[in-house]
């Protein structure tokens, strides 16, 4: 009997060790898959911006002193826009790698939300389309949240820039902040293309892009990052969307 118990223990230990090894293996597989998807995505996504940068730079190099300022500005702005696009793709990858490796540093402090939102909206108003406006409503009294301000800013920036990107010029984007005894709620509402019903359940998956959005540049990483950031901040996200009408994303923090 004694030796049976010994045998059982040994088997259990062996199964445990196997499980650990399998876990490590599947983590490694996931990392490898992520790397190869990065390479294939990067080679697609980087090609257009890089060739635009190259051709604009070549044109500027050929300009003589008689070239109009307007033409110079056009190409310089094109270079800037494309460099910033490449930078944001790279930043998304770096953020995701950092979160997935558990290396994200979270530092919660007491944040005044009105000031954060006002500043953010003014920053994002520089990337809106023609006649597209971000309107925001914040509680009349100052309201505070104990959170990591950098991460919260990144969450709201990702949601607002999606609202801008996936809706047309001339449309309105609303950011509503409400505070009550239970906590704080942010709502980002757009009048854009919406998300097809069949795609909605996959929306927060890594690299997922809805079928109606492929003509617009994107990586499918922003919402995956948002979801993981919100886990770090103890926040919850949900959304409602109607294809062709618009989407509303809701982020909640409980007191
Ligand atoms: P990206 O915008 O880089 O593709 P995201 O992870 O932020 O990546 O979004 C994933 C997909 O969800 C997008 O490709 C798009 O299809 C859809 N999506 C996200 N936000 C919106 C929105 N506000 N309106 C319509 N579609 C959206």
TrEMBL record:
Q: What's its EC? A: 2.7.13.3
Q: What GO terms are given for molecular function?
A: kinase activity
What is the enzyme's main class? transferase
Catalytic reactions on record: ATP + protein L-histidine = ADP + protein N-phospho-L-histidine
Provide the Histidine kinase domain boundaries. Answer: 41-255
Protein keywords: Coiled coil, Kinase, Phosphoprotein, Transferase, Two-component regulatory system
The entry's protein name is: histidine kinase
Identify the species of origin.
Answer: Reichenbachiella agarivorans
């Amino acid at each position: 009997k004694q030796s049976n118990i010994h045998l059982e223990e040994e088997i259990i230990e062996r199964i445990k060790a196997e499980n650990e090894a399998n876990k490590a293996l599947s983590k490694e597989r996931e990392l490898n898959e992520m790397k190869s998807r990065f390479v294939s995505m990067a080679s697609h996504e980087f090609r257009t911006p890089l060739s635009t940068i190259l051709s604009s730079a070549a044109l500027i190099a050929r300009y003589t002193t008689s070239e109009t300022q307007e033409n110079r500005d056009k190409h310089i702005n094109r270079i800037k826009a494309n460099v910033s696009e490449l930078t944001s793709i790279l930043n998304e990858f770096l953020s995701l790698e950092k979160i997935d490796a558990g290396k994200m540093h979270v530092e919660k402090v007491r944040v005044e939300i009105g000031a954060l939102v006002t500043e953010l909206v003014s920053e994002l108003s520089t990337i809106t389309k023609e006649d597209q406006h971000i309107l925001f409503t914040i509680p009349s009294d100052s309201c505070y949240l104990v959170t990591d301000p950098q991460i919260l800013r990144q969450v709201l920036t990702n949601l607002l820039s999606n609202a801008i990107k996936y809706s047309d010029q001339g449309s309105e984007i609303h950011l509503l902040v409400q505070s009550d005894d239970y906590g704080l709620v942010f709502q980002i509402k757009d009048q854009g293309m919406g998300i097809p019903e069949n795609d909605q359940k996959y929306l927060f998956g890594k690299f997922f892009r809805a079928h109606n959005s492929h003509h617009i540049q994107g990586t499918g990483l922003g919402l995956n990052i948002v979801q993981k950031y919100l886990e770090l901040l103890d926040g919850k996200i949900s959304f409602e969307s109607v294809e062709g009408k618009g989407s509303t994303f809701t982020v909640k923090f409980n007191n």
